Amino acid sequence: MPYPLPFLRPLVVAGLIVFAFTLVLRFFSSRTILESHTAFALSQMVEHIHQTDRAKFPRTNEQLIELLKLATIDWNSCRIEGDDVLDGWGRPLTLTFDSDKQRWTFRSSGKDGLAGTDDDIEQVTYGFVGVDPKEKP
């Protein structure tokens, strides 16, 4: 029995193809693209801090977030939301400042969302030469 509307069959087939393609794309993008976006955003954050002048070197998370909001960073699927920097999966990064070494560590818990596993992504600044750790921000 023919379809009452002749365009319905191709429309349903096209819809199923698009749906299958979306599932495949989502599977692969969640494994590689989001990881690349996160690693790239972290490397840009580190580079921006390395280029920051001594007077603006951030020593608190609040100062860091304000500095990053003004930075020209290609965030891709990462972003700043409120007081959090979110990775490609939309989860907050762990931002840690080591006052003794004057360096920041940025860590994403990766695709699995669990800290301390093999898929974690981490970048560390090399510190800021000449910053006195006891100096108040």
Class by helix and strand content? Answer: alpha+beta
Amino- and carboxy-terminal Cα gap:
78 Å
Query: pLDDT average, as an integer?
Result: 84
Question: Could you estimate the helical fraction of the residues in percent?
Answer: 25-40%
**Oligomeric state of the chains present here:** single chain
Rg, nearest Å: 22 Å
Order of helical and strand elements: HHEEEEE
Number of helices: 2
Largest sheet: 3 strands, antiparallel
Describe the structure in your own words:
The chain has two helices and five strands. The protein has 137 residues and is of the alpha+beta class. The chain has one domain. The protein has a three-stranded antiparallel sheet, with helices on one face. Strands 1-2 form a two-stranded antiparallel ribbon. The longest helix is centred in the first third of the chain and has 43 residues, at 8-50. The model has no long low-confidence stretch (mean pLDDT 84).
Task: Produce a short descriptive summary.
With 137 residues, the chain is an alpha+beta fold. It contains two helices and five strands; from the N terminus they run H-H-E-E-E-E-E.
